Amino acid sequence: MTDGTSPDITQRQSPGILWTLGLLHGALRARHGLSLHGYLILGALAEAAGGSAPVTELTAFLGESGDRMSYLLRGMQASGLIERDRRDRDRRTVQVTLTDTGRGTFADAERTAQAIVRRDLAPGLVESPAPASPAPRPAAVRDLPRPGRVQGRTPLGDATRERPGPRT
């Protein structure tokens, strides 16, 4: 409900990170049928050696519960973006592998994400010179930065809180 005095969020000059993530989520849904979680999962798999990682590594990377991750992966598998198989060496471990369709979807979604971030966040940033050498890429999903302590301003106010980890 609007009262005519509140600004239209799509007309903001430079939306903050929260609004940009909201816009990104909407664009990923509309253009690629992906949620932010789906985009992050595809991205983590695209970065992983062989486009494959165990579910436990993806769960830890996103800081989600096993139940939530199973739900997300089931939908992505039904869409043909990923395959899930038990490892031959250890049948208790489920391995997730990016399909060609998933790789193509991620490439398209990455272009969308880059355009939105450049448009909405980059105008206020000063371009810095390129680093002398590129940062090393993680060898596995488990080496990607993991959610941890969150400090600062949140949509609900100032907060410092510990993100919940996967259930044990």
Number of strands: 5
What would you report as the Rg, rounded to the nearest angstrom?
A: 18 Å
Number of helices: 5
Q: From the structure provided, what is the oligomeric state, counting identical versus distinct chains?
A: single chain
Shape: elongated
Stretches with pLDDT under 50, minimum 5 residues: 1-6, 148-168
- Main sheet characteristics: 3 strands, antiparallel
What letter string, H or E per element, gives the SSE order? Answer: HHEHHEEHEE
Mean pLDDT: 75
**What percentage of the residues does DSSP assign to strands (E)?**
5-15%
Q: Structural class of the secondary elements?
A: alpha+beta
Give the fraction of residues assigned to helices: 40-55%
The CA-CA distance between the termini, in Å, is: 42 Å
What's the arrangement of strands in the largest beta sheet?
1-3-2
